[in-house]
TrEMBL record:
NCBIfam families: PRK09589.1. It is an enzyme of class 3 (hydrolase). This is 6-phospho-beta-glucosidase. GO terms for molecular function: 6-phospho-beta-glucosidase activity. Gene3D superfamilies: Glycosidases. Belongs to the glycosyl hydrolase 1 family. Coiled coil: none annotated. The keyword Hydrolase applies. Keywords: Glycosidase, Hydrolase. InterPro entries: GH, GH_1_N_CS, Glyco_hydro_1, Glyco_hydro_1_AS. It comes from the Bacteria.
Length: 466
């Protein structure tokens, strides 16, 4: 198998990390707007309202809102075939529960999609990328509450109808599986646990609501435009057993159950044995409505998109639970402690394709690193080129040698944007440098790095130049 000429080479972003203009033209607050910046290893502080004189990285981010034309022209110069972005839910419905959408918000995305169309760049649009409106969190308890299914469906219906001739590829929830993996599923589900609640129950209930919402909008989207391709999105945590001990292999299986939990339901349309076993492991319960079985069955996704950054190594502890081994001796770590593992990407593609036999889409991969501007004013980011090149090579092997169907490769943070994990700017992923620091200083000017010219050649040669 070869890489098709219509392979989607490009890059990916998310509104809250990129757009800024956090209250402009009627946008409401979302969960990212009250999150402060931090450092590697230090948890980001979340406020329940905006505090005066505190710096919040999302408020200005890197100002795509006002600079989209310049940025899209740069993406076009690199030869992008596709660009992943998210619609900020609170730009369309500032509180999340209105009946009438915010026309200025809708117009902004019209302009962005029209600009992308000018250069034949396919928009790949995430509907919910860590951007739940604050009001839904504070008034309704976020995805704990079944009402969120209706609010989300109405928001999706609004944007599906509005952009039905401008957008074909949609992604529902970003990294939905992190709802179960993270100790605090704030980004994924807008949830901060209360002291008196059973965490397992809350996670299962919120996940169920999100899975029903996912299936509902997949079905709805196909009705609105049968040409829509609607995919799910997971963080794929390729996992190795720490040794060849059968117990450690079992640890891998157990460790990955939460990830297959979501993908199974979204791809197969029902709670599989992996899911029901996971309920028991977690010791949680939740209620399903009678109609949910049919909704899940009828709303399966067209493709699986996923993020891939690192791999994890696990062993089984005495309680028969998987535990993460701090360091895999065969892998280097980035400055942010993430293992670098190109072969892990090939393995991920194989594992996912073997299990689901659905087209796969790599919608995030990249290296977060500190970039220095040299005496000539250039950024020689050879480390980024090496990282991306080695990963793309393995992806190509998965396509050519393993016959895995891959729709495209979108590098994360194709322009420097705010980091989710830390709120930093210094953790840069981009081909394009943005003049802004962690305190918010900088003139936001854009500058191509060495990797910009390298990626242009990769795209031009359809992956032959690496
Ligand atoms: C993914 C998210 O988890 O990882 C992105 O979907 C995020 O939004 C990316 O930016 C990289 O993480 P970080 O913490 O380096 O920004």
């Amino acid at each position: 198998m070869n890489i098709n000429n219509d392979f989607f080479w490009g890059g990916a972003t998310a509104a809250h990390q990129y757009e800024g203009a956090y209250l402009e033209d009627g946008k409401g607050l979302n969960i990212a707007d009250v999150e402060r910046g931090s450092r590697h290893g230090v948890e980001r502080k979340i406020d329940n309202q905006i505090i005066e004189n505190v710096y919040y990285p999302s408020h200005e981010a890197v100002d795509f809102y006002h600079r989209y034309k310049e940025d899209i022209a740069l993406f076009a110069e690199m030869g992008f075939k596709a660009f992943r972005m998210s619609i900020s839910w609170a730009r369309i419905f500032p509180n999340g529960d209105e009946k009438i959408p915010n026309e200025s918000g809708l117009e902004f995305y019209d302009k962005v999609f029209d600009e992308l169309a000018k250069y034949n760049i396919e928009p790949i649009v995430t509907l919910s990328h860590y951007e739940t409106p604050m009001h839904l969190v504070q008034q309704y308890g976020s995805w704990r509450n079944r009402k969120l299914i209706d609010f989300f469906t109405y928001y999706c219906e609004t944007v599906f109808r509005r952009y039905k001739d401008k957008v074909r590829y949609w992604i529902t929830f970003n990294e939905i599986n992190e709802t179960m993996n993270k100790a605090k599923p704030y980004h994924q589900a807008g949830i901060i646990f209360k002291d008196n609640e059973n965490k397992a129950d809350v996670v299962l209930k919120a996940s169920h609501n999100m899975l029903v919402a996912n299936a509902t909008v997949v079905k709805l989207g196909h009705r609105i435009n049968p040409d829509f391709k609607i995919g799910c999105m997971i963080q794929y945590p390729m996992t190795y057993p720490a040794s060849s001990k059968p117990q450690d292999n079992l640890a891998k299986k157990l460790f990955m159950m939460p990830d297959y939990y979501y993908a199974d339901v979204m791809c197969k349309g029902y709670y599989t044995n992996t899911c029901t076993a996971q309920w028991e492991r977690m010791g949680g319960t939740f209620e399903q409505e009678d109609e949910d079985t049919l909704i899940l069955k009828e709303g399966t996704v067209d493709f699986i998109s996923f993020s891939y950054y690192f791999t994890t190594t696990v062993k089984l502890n005495e309680e028969q639970e998987p535990v993460v081994v701090k360091k895999n001796p065969y892998l280097e770590l980035t400055d942010w402690g993430w293992s670098v593992d190109p072969i892990g990407l090939r393995l991920s593609l194989n594992e996912l394709y073997d299990r689901y036999q659905l087209p796969l889409f790599i919608v995030e991969n990249g290296l977060g690193a500190i970039d220095e501007i040299d005496e000539n004013g250039e950024i020689q980011d050879d480390y980024r080129i090496n990282f991306l090149s080695s990963h793309i090579k393995e992806m190509i092997k998965a396509i050519k040698e393993d016959h895995v169907e891959v729709l495209g490769y979108l590098s994360w943070g194709c322009i420097d944007i705010v980091s989710v994990g830390t709120g930093e700017m210094r953790k840069r992923y981009g081909f394009i440098y943005v003049d802004k620091d962690d305190e918010g200083n900088g003139n936001l000017s854009r500058k191509p790095k060495k990797s910009f010219y390298w990626y242009k050649k990769v795209i031009e040669s359809n992956g032959r130049y690496l």
